[in-house]
């Protein structure tokens, strides 16, 4: 019973870790709630009245969520600097509220400065946010000069409680966060394997649903890999360890994605295109159920479950002869003689199991250190030797200073956003004053928020729509909660804490949900301040709509960056990164040196993530242009396919110095040159539609490299996997030409 209970707790923890990678959302929500609760407890013990309790709760929340730096000493310094900034801002907000024109002008200048300060990094962003939010705090509680001394004490208590929660009660170190992200990666890898087991058994009526779950699981695994790669430098002891972890995470992700593709191919009459995994709504290739004997299906199911165990459990929890037997069997599938008798596509699945098991072994060694090798089979010993050789071959490349490629003047993103928000907030102040001379600041707050983490008019429009929708729903909830709470002060504060936690926990998932929880919490705060009426909450909807409209107008008129321009710029960046990765990987596979291929692949993934976020206005359900939406989704899916093959080529090329079955082949350089030229042609066309260029076509890369077609003897053997990735990358790049308006080069016969 005790073992069963522990197993149940482990499964629950794995689900939590997979749902919230690194427990980042849970930590943010708990830390904010604890900061507020501590502040309320201290102020209540000091006999503070309700308005000061509300002020303390807001100040504690701001002091907690504004800090974004990863290193604890930098967090402490920013928090220490933030306290005098908050005190000055509260003072100015209180004193200038009596002078309408001067107060409004300063508020606009403050917002300009707060946005402009983002150019100075996380600390500039935090201090600007603290300055703006504490100014807003003074307006919200209607602070008066006589109240300032007590308000100073409240803000100081709030910052002290925020520090206590951050550094003592809920500490979060870069190394600890990275460790939790590793657990999340294992958990999401296990969930993806669970979905692959479902795909193995799914009938025709369930296959489409399972395919969609497979897409989601693959995307979540990739998301966690990016999170880990973004925190490796701060969370590991040295750069060599960081590169090793980055490499093992990338290997495991690629192997798991390839295994899913092989399962899809085994179900299909033809080889499955990688696009099947990346295009939402793409149908499952024809073929029905997996065409295998019951014995082979049972073996696959058994081995997928064994792979899940190997990937999920740390060494201390899964040691012994049984695990060694499972590991030996799976790694044995890397040897041709150990493959079961089955159709070629099904044998490929078993090969994929072997490669994924090797990646899981490498990940286990990187995360848990050396393991007991006494039970190793010859196949497992060979896999360990390969992994050891790869580890030894990892060399730390020299660091180079990042180049400041950001344009200057008004073209600088922070400057442009600061000017836009100054104009938008001015409009919001004028309109907000017409709606309410007491609560005009809600329009300004909305205008401010819709500019955060947005870079184009379309992004601001979508964010404004989501905020308005969440506000409307939150007003309805706020009216109901205010009626239930009545004048029970501490019940209201308890509900506010729950809503604040929900706000921070859901913020990365849904901006609409976050806005809903914020508005519902504000309804309770109004109740505490004895200013609650249904009319006040309706006014909040009107002010929110006005602020969103002012933000969109400012973004569209003042130094606008249209969504098309923004997405085109990011598309060119993705294509440039793809060309770099492909060129470097092919160079190394051809006998040259490609540099830090894993890092180049990570830069490609990050550029693609930026593009995916920027295309949300084009792919949002409210977008009226359906054809344009479908084109954007198709292009992003094709780029994800290209990125997958680029990552796979980079990972294979890095195996070259140590893997016995991969030898350099100089002919690959010529074969890959066409792909790179096509990528560069597409990038030039996107950057300048007047540029001339055509997509080069020719025989398939696989046929160009078949024995007998070369005029010079080849050096060694390039694996089928390399040829397959090059061929699929060539097809995907050519597929990008049509939706982006390029045409293939005319054949020699037509030219004559």
From TrEMBL:
Protein origin, superkingdom: Bacteria
UniProt-annotated location(s): Cell membrane
Chief subcellular location: membrane
Membrane topology: Multi-pass membrane protein
Biased composition (Acidic residues): 387-399
Keyword Iron: no
Protein keywords: Cell membrane, Membrane, Transmembrane, Transmembrane helix
InterPro entries (alphabetical): Memb_transporter_dom
Parts of the chain that traverse the membrane: 33-64, 76-93, 124-145, 151-170, 441-461, 468-486, 492-509, 516-539
Matching PANTHER family: MULTIDRUG RESISTANCE PROTEIN MDTO, P-HYDROXYBENZOIC ACID EFFLUX PUMP SUBUNIT-RELATED
Protein name: FUSC family protein
């Amino acid at each position: 019973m005790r073992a069963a209970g522990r197993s149940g707790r482990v499964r629950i923890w794995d689900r939590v870790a997979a749902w919230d990678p690194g427990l980042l959302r849970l930590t943010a929500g708990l830390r904010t709630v604890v900061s507020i609760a501590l502040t309320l407890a201290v102020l209540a013990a000091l006999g503070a009245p309700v308005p000061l309790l509300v002020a303390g709760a807001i100040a504690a929340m701001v002091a907690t969520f504004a800090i974004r730096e990863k290193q604890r000493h930098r967090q402490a310094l920013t928090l220490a600097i933030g306290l005098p900034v908050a005190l000055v801002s509260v003072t100015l907000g209180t004193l200038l509220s009596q002078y309408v024109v001067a107060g409004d002008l300063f508020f606009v200048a403050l917002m300009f400065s707060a946005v402009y300060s983002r150019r100075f990094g996380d600390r500039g962003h935090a201090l600007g946010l603290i300055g703006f939010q504490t100014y807003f705090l003074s307006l919200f509680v209607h602070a008066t000069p006589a109240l300032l001394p007590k308000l100073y004490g409240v803000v100081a208590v709030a910052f002290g409680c925020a520090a206590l929660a951050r550094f003592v009660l809920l500490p979060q170190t870069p190394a600890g966060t990275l460790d939790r992200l590793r657990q999340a990666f294992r958990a999401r890898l296990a969930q993806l394997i669970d979905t692959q087991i479902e795909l193995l058994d799914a009938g025709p009526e369930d296959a489409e649903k399972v395919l969609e779950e497979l897409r989601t699981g693959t995307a979540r695994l990739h998301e966690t890999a990016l999170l880990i790669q973004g925190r490796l430098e701060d969370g590991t002891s040295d750069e060599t360890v960081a590169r090793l972890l980055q490499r093992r995470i990338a290997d495991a992700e690629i192997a798991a994605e390839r295994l899913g593709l092989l399962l899809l191919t085994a179900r299909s009459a033809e080889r499955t295109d990688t696009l099947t995994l990346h295009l939402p709504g793409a149908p499952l290739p024809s073929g029905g159920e997996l065409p295998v004997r019951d014995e082979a299906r049972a073996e696959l199911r058994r081995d997928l479950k064994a792979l899940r165990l190997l990937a999920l459990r740390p060494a201390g929890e899964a040691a012994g002869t049984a695990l060694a037997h499972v590991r030996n069997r799976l790694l044995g599938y890397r040897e041709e003689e150990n493959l079961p008798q089955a159709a070629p596509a099904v044998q490929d699945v078993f090969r994929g199991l072997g490669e994924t098991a090797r990646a899981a072994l490498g990940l286990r060694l990187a995360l848990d250190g050396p393991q007991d090798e006494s039970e190793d089979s010859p196949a497992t010993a060979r896999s360990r030797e390969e992994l050891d050789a790869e580890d030894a071959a990892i060399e730390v490349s020299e660091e180079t200073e990042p180049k400041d490629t950001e344009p200057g003047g008004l073209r600088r993103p922070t400057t442009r956003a600061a000017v836009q928000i100054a104009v938008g907030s001015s409009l919001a102040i004028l309109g907000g004053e017409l709606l309410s001379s007491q609560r005009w600041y809600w329009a300004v707050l909305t205008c401010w928020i819709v500019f955060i983490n947005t870079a184009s008019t379309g992004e601001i429009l979508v964010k404004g729509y989501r905020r308005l929708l969440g506000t409307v729903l939150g007003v309805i909830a706020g009216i109901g909660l205010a009626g239930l709470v009545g004048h029970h002060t501490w019940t209201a504060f308890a509900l506010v804490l729950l809503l604040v936690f929900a706000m921070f926990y859901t913020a990365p998932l849904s901006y609409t949900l976050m806005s809903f929880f914020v508005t519902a919490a504000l309804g309770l705060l109004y109740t505490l301040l004895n200013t609650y009426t249904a009319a006040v909450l309706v006014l909040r909807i009107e002010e929110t709509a006005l602020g969103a409209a002012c933000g969109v107008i400012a973004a569209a008129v003042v130094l606008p960056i249209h969504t098309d321009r923004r997405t085109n710029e990011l598309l060119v960046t993705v294509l440039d990164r793809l060309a770099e990765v492909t060129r470097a990987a092919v160079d190394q596979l051809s006998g040259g040196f490609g540099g830090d291929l894993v890092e180049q692949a990570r830069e490609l993934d990050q550029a693609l993530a930026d593009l995916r976020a920027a295309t949300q206005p084009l792919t949002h359900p409210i977008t009226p242009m359906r054809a344009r939406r479908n084109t954007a989704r198709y292009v992003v899916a094709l780029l994800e396919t290209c990125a997958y093959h680029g990552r796979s080529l980079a990972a294979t090329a890095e195996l070259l110095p140590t893997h016995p079955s991969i030898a350099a082949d100089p002919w690959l350089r010529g074969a890959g040159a066409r792909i790179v030229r096509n990528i560069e042609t597409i990038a030039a066309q996107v950057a300048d539609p007047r540029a001339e260029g055509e997509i080069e076509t020719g025989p398939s890369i696989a046929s160009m490299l078949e024995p007998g077609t070369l005029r010079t003897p080849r050096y060694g053997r390039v694996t089928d996997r390399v040829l397959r990735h090059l061929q699929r990358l060539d097809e995907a790049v050519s597929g990008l030409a049509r939706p982006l308006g390029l045409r293939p080069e005319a054949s020699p016969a037509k030219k004559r």
